[in-house]
Amino acid sequence: MFKLFINPKHKISHINPELQGHFSEHLGRCIYEGIYVGENSDIPNTNGIRNDVVEALKNIKVPVLRWPGGCFADEYHWKDGIGPKETRKKMINTNWGGVLEDNSFGTHEFMDLCEQIGCKNYINGNVGSGTVQEMSEWVEYMTFDGVSPMADLRKANGHPDPWKVDYFGVGNENWGCGGNMTPEYYANLYRRYQTFVKDYNADNHIYKICCGADGYNFDWTDVVMDICFRSQPKFHGFMDGISLHYYTITHDWEHKGSALDFTDKEWYMTLTSALKIEDAIKAQECIMDKYDKAGNIGMIVDEWGTWFDVEPGTNPGFLYQQNTIRDALVAGVSLNIFNKHSKRVKMANIAQIVNVLQSVILTEGDKMILTPTYHVFDMYKAHQDADLVESFIESEMVGLEDEYKVPNLSESVSIDKDGKLQITVANLSLDEDYSIDAILTDSEIRSVKGEIVSGEIHEHNTFTDTDRVKKCAYEEFRAEGGKLNFIIPAASVLHLEVEI
Ligand code: AHR
Fold first, then answer.
1. Mutation test of ligand 1: which of 23, 25, 65, 247 has the most ligand atoms closer than 8 Å to its C-beta?
2. Residue nearest to atom 6 of ligand 1 (CA)
């Protein structure tokens, strides 16, 4: 028996809906086929955007979508993706399989996609191979409401009104694919480029995101923040947020292992790697605290998720992988960690939304499947816009070898706008069910509803068997007074909604 202590009266921080954000890149079959099929496709679409995918994304309340990359962002020239489609420039996607990019999906199509989903937009600008002028004109094109060369061009291209740009990233992974820069060099470029990411409208403050580190690259964050804060501390280092990337890798970058065919030991190896995101977040928080004591700057975990070897027979540059109960667990523990750090973490975008890495949706022609990860997001949406409350769960270490032992349980608890408690718990053990006694301080439980994602650890959905893993109703609980006992099966992610 393990105890879960919850103090509903002690609110810790607000859970931004954006903690459940997504990332879409011109990579493999994410944008083309996965999202955009063109107006002439037989697949039902609105302005070329798949209706089935949009409906599924609306259901999980996707709060924000990042685009166009990733590595692609730093070789993307936005003017190639506007105007009549037949005259749009074609280019080679050098990062991802060397395939032809016809630019038929550009700024207008992305904004339309976000409007159809009903989510905020996060545009990632090009520092690596783009100019300050190009970035500045993109912002002017999207947001300026007066008479100007770029606003006029937007109008000529059929969009009289400006859009609201919610988030803008100044470069991506500029320590790597975004230009192989040193932190000193990037920080100075950041200061310069961001100057021209202007707020043209009083009611549209663009949240500027500085390119941060990869996992444990503490030097990058420290140097970039130091230079950005130098001599002008009152401007918050000229940033609203700084990014962090962290991928769950089971072995190493050369041999990442199969998404479907894995051993018990690899189950624990993957979860060990997933949990280490919290070490990266804590360390980066310490560095941010050093410069931004008031906590004004958000940590933006704008790429996270599992990264396995591609599915056999698929293009290695397309990063297409299947998704099992193991991915559901990675999603569950990661989202719990983001909730627990919601004081500093203001956005997190899983990589990537469709057909790439840890996707919530996979497509094949006109077929679509929802992955186990999708169903976890479907349960966790209850945390969006709620307040994290104080909670603690007892746990023990489980696993097969010392190096790959993980705590058996992970949780986070929030209280939503209606005063309901939203409890999410993940059981990381592959073979042990646990009985949990939740103790709620000063509370009387009035009703409980449960739902769960569980199954044999390799279980996944296929295009011929789409519903092997799905969210199911769950009733293995008993409530009395302020106590709630429930059983959590091995290898599962559980959501309980408690009315108090
Ligand atoms: O998500 C795939 C790639 O991973 C992104 O393009 C890049 O930013 C990261 O290295």
1. 25
2. 70
**How many of the other CB atoms lie within 10 Å of CB of 405?**
15
Asked if residue 440 is part of any domain, the answer here is yes
Residue type at 465?
Answer: D
Distance 69 CA to ligand 1 centre (A): 7
203 CB-contact burial (10 Å; exposed 0-12 / middle 13-18 / buried 19+)? exposed
Give the per-residue pLDDT at 282: 97
C-alpha 462 to ligand 1 mean position (Å): 25
Active-site position among 33, 101, 266, 303: 303
What does the pLDDT read at residue 329? 98
pLDDT digits (tens, 9 = 90+) for 470-500: 999 999 999 999 999 999 999 999 999 999 9
Closest listed residue to residue 67, CA positions, set 111, 36, 97: 111
Mean pLDDT computed over 245-268? 96
In angstroms, what is the span from residue 71 Cα to ligand 1's centroid?
6
Domain harbouring 188, CATH code: 3.20.20.80
Q: Token pair of 368, please? A: 């679509």
Residue 171 alpha carbon to ligand 1 centre in Å: 12
Q: Are residues 224 and 326 in the same domain?
A: yes
Q: Is the CB of 69 under 6 A from ligand 1?
A: yes
Catalytic residue flag (residue 390) = no
Q: Are residues 402 and 357 in the same domain?
A: no
For residue 467, pLDDT beyond 80: yes
Q: Please tell me if the CB atom of residue 24 comes closer than 6 angstroms to any atom of ligand 1.
A: no
Active site residue 456: no
Q: 252 CB contacts (<8 Å, ≥6 apart)? A: none
Selecting among 101, 109, 173, 266, the annotated active-site residue is 173
Beta bridge partners of 67: 123
Q: What is the pLDDT of residue 312?
A: 96
Task: Output the residue whose Cα is nearest ligand 1's atom 4.
Answer: 70
**Euclidean distance between CA atoms 138 and 107, whole angstroms:** 9
Averaged pLDDT of the chain: 97
Final residue before a domain boundary, out of 355, 385, 415 = 385
- For 492, the domain range is 389-499
- Whether 233 shows a pLDDT value over 70: the answer reads no
The pTM is what?
Answer: 0.97
**For residue 231, pLDDT beyond 80:** no
**β-strand partners of 437:** 3, 485
